[in-house]
Amino acid sequence: MKNRTYLEQSDAVRARFDTIKQRNVILEARHLGKTFASAQGEVEALRDINFKIHRREIICVVGPSGCGKSTLARTLAGLEKQSSGEMLIDGKPVNGPGQDRGMVFQGYSLFPWLTVKKNVMFGPEMNGAGRDDAERDAMLWIDLVGLSRFANAYPHQLSGGMRQRVAIARALVNQPRILLMDEPFGALDAQTRIKMQTHLLDIWRNVDITIVFITHDLDEAIFLADRILVLKAHPGEVQEMIEVPVPRPRSTAQFGGAEFRATKQRLEELIHPPVQPEENEDESAIKPHLIRFTHVTDNVE
Ligand SMILES: Nc1ncnc2c1ncn2[C@@H]1O[C@H](COP(=O)(O)OP(=O)(O)OP(=O)(O)O)[C@@H](O)[C@H]1O
């Protein structure tokens, strides 16, 4: 039987992409580039990045270490100024951070001295909302991330997954249109991570939000994304934008499915291309000579 490829889409998936493409382009990168000056000289972290993201899409960004994923997230957030090209929201060029974008990072960026509720109220209060309004809004979002019972708890009393849920509530309370997430579940154990992915999809289903999600976990990218932006390193350039053929609604049961496997295979080809051994390469030169650090009397094999 012929192996399925990631380019094959069921009618339902194709119809869904047709609908997505008819939605407004909310975020666009045009020839975006970023070069850092460092002690070792210039580092071209991003080169000529182009993409268009439609309203309520989830785009995951993957690529090898150093391909500029975080730089892209920080540039889109306006925390880093691009060296060339432009970024547009609703077709208008933007420079610098703005209310239209919220960010969730890997580290738990909560204020440890504030309760869950006060952490979430912080943004609205900084934006001039009165205490009662800020508290009401905060409680709505805390409820949405399923933490109402913990509104008065402090971050150190929560698990890693719960803290990231607070971070999501804290980003969403400001009603951004775009949520930028940089490896938000990277520090969580595998089981909590899957729960958080499912939870994020639930939130996305209920909220008018467009998500750009940076990850190095290919399963996570396929599980979450409508499309996956694959970058290559040195310099960070777009390799491919993949339309994920896995149907929605997503469930963990799809992990072993044909569409899932075909997409993963393509991502692996792009990100970890097979290393070709040099012709006439001596096997013994590849296999390192291992030193025994302790005296071992019994064999384990
Ligand atoms: N502030 C900086 N100054 C100089 N070089 C930087 C700076 N930030 C990033 N870089 C360089 O830019 C390139 C892209 O870095 P970036 O952290 O965006 O990649 P990444 O894909 O997120 O990596 P990883 O997957 O390892 O987190 C790297 O070569 C990095 O060393």
Provide the helix percentage: 25-40%
Associated small molecules: adenosine-5'-triphosphate
Strand content: 15-25%
What structural category arises from helix and sheet content?
alpha/beta
For the largest beta-sheet, the strand count, sense and barrel status come to: 6 strands, mixed
CATH level 1 name: Alpha Beta
Instruction: State the low-pLDDT regions, or none.
Output: none
Work out the count of structural domains. 1
- Looking at the structure, what is the overall shape? globular
Span between termini: 39 Å
User: How many helices?
Assistant: 9
Q: What is the H level of CATH, i.e. the homologous superfamily?
A: P-loop containing nucleotide triphosphate hydrolases
User: What is the CATH topology assignment?
Assistant: Rossmann fold
Strand order of the largest sheet: 6-7-8-3-9-10
Please tell me the overall pLDDT.
91
- Helix and strand succession? HEEEHEEEHHHEHEHEEHH
Family: Belongs to the ABC transporter superfamily.
InterPro entries: AAA+_ATPase, ABC_transporter-like_ATP-bd, ABC_transporter-like_CS, ABC_transporter_ATP-bind, P-loop_NTPase
Protein name: ABC transporter related protein
Pfam families: ABC_tran
Keywords:
6-stranded mixed β-sheet; globular; 4-stranded antiparallel β-sheet; Rossmann fold; transport; alpha/beta; nucleotide-binding; ABC transporter related protein; 301 residues; binds adenosine-5'-triphosphate
Blueprint of the fold:
Blueprint (H helix, E strand, L loop, with lengths): L10 H12 L2 E14 L2 E14 L3 E5 L6 H9 L6 E6 L2 E2 L7 E4 L11 H11 L4 H14 L15 H13 L5 E5 L7 H17 L3 E5 L3 H7 L2 E6 L4 E7 L14 H14 L11 H4 L15
Parallel strand pairs: 3-8, 3-9, 6-7, 7-8
Antiparallel strand pairs: 1-2, 1-4, 4-5, 9-10
Helix pairs in contact: 3-4, 3-5, 4-5, 7-8
